[in-house]
Amino acid sequence: MSSLTREDVKLMLNKVPEVTLYFWFIKIMATTVGETAADFLNFNLHFGLTGTSVLMGVSLAGFLFIQMRSQKYVPWMYWMVVVLISIVGTLITDNLVDNFGVSLETTTIVFSLALLATFIFWYVSEKTLSIHTIYSTKREWFYWATILFTFALGTAAGDLAAEGLKLGYANSTFMFGAMIAFVTLFYYAFKANAVLAFWIAYILTRPLGASFGDYLSQPAANGGIGLGTIVTSILFLAAILGMVTYLSFSKKAAGKV
């Protein structure tokens, strides 16, 4: 840390976007795309879980490499990595459940523990979990590892609630949405710790997005409204593209320093 100049710190802090309503809207849409795009590649394009996993894994590795090499926050690059991590996180859980027969209960527990361990190692190493203090490569690795586990956990928890516990996609969507609303209320009304509130809400957006994506894309016989993975993915990708384009040409594109 001592070798970084003040300008270096500012540039690296700019790699993380400011947490605004735009951030949360894009994040939720990215989680939904992660669910529907994985299903689209797997089933509609007949890539299969293995083929889809390889394709998305290689894509993520490439874009993450570019993201890590960048010295400033670039909206389209940052959100491309988030979308790809969302898809890969979904595929990790799907592979464990469908190809290896691991139960949703087990995957939920395992990824919960993995996420907790990541938080612990991150805090022990850096003494903070704030996303606005990511001014080193190590902290950025902790950041992306945390996000990957939130997506894998969210997929497992969302599927467990909707399918394993038979709540259905609509009820699961409302449940996770209500939980996020409660965290938001607790933060603003009772001045809860900002870092803690952020990560709880961030974790919950994944099962919210997964449940909502399934609700939109799945046929009525399965508890959805039958838009299909193609239409749902296109709608949300277009919305993400529109918001990211706007952020790229506005002052809101700057990260919080």
Automatic annotation (TrEMBL):
Stored Pfam families: DUF347
Record-annotated membrane-spanning stretches: 21-41, 47-66, 73-92, 104-125, 141-162, 168-188, 195-213, 225-249
Domain of life: Bacteria
InterPro entries to which the protein is assigned, alphabetical: DUF347 (IPR007136)
UniProt entry keywords in alphabetical sequence: Membrane, Transmembrane, Transmembrane helix
Protein name: Putative membrane-anchored protein
Organism: Sulfurirhabdus autotrophica
